[in-house]
Amino acid sequence: MSKQCSQCDARAELSLCFLASTVGRPERLQKCSAGTALCKSCMQSLLDRLGSAMPSAMVARLRAAYTVIDGQSVACLNPSLSLGSANRRGRDDAQV
Which residues lie across from 21 on neighbouring strands? Predict the structure, then answer.
């Protein structure tokens, strides 16, 4: 079932969620937000706008995670692409 982008009329290609997690505590608490459906164009626009509103390290981590996901979706369409190293690099870069 196809979903619509929450920002425009295009078909959504991914869902963006936020994860909040405690650190430095014996019991880790985590909460994930509901997803927001986005198309590639709106995701790129959001990343560009966030660059002026968030610390650059946070935006870089989000951009790295998105790049890995976007690359994996391309690989699904073209299995001859090898994303092994990009996948490992993206996973490391996406850690907060």
Answer: 30
- State the pTM of this model: 0.63
My answer on whether 63 and 27 are in the same domain is: no
Strand, coil or helix: 68? helix
In a domain, 44, yes or no: no
Alpha-carbon span 82 to 29, nearest angstrom: 36
| 3 state DSSP class of 36 | strand
Residue 90 token pair: 């993206």
For residue 35, what is the DSSP state? P
| Max CA separation in the chain (angstroms) | 45
Residue-number span of the structural domain to which 87 is assigned: 51-96
Answer yes or no: is pLDDT of 44 > 50: yes
